[in-house]
What we know:
alpha+beta, 6 strands
Amino acid sequence: MHTGWQGRYFEDFTVGDVYRHPLGRTISEADNTWFTLLTMNTHPAHFDAHYAERTPFGQILVNSGLTIAMVLGQSVTDISQKAVANLEMTNIKLTHPVFVGDTLYAESICTAKRESASKPYAGLVSVHTRALNGDGDECLSFDRTVLVYKATEATAINSFPEAKRGPLTLAEGGRA
């Protein structure tokens, strides 16, 4: 039995390590419009092409909240898959416009880690994350601190159920 990638525990982080998050994501017009409407952002630069053409950007601008959320999500597999909680996001910088059709990639560097003084089952991990578009322009950066489970303490939260019929076998999959 092999489990899929399930993220890093506190012990797996080393200050100075860089994590290139595996999935890039192209932002569609639907992504931007839905996020903008869902969050009740009424600025027409995010959903009115006629208006957006007259701005300095000349086209619809992706909602910065979506950009932040998407890059944060891209980093979860490497940084916070084993988190108890996100504790802090600071120094958010939107350094290059993001447009519909742009593909974003994210990478993070571990900047600090320490044992938790109040939660013996976890430690604090701090990272600096940045997003690049397909041309390599840095579009966003932020710092984040996450409370992450220690490996020895997290086994109790494994939520994958045991099959009542037993483990999966080749015969069951039709390939004997």
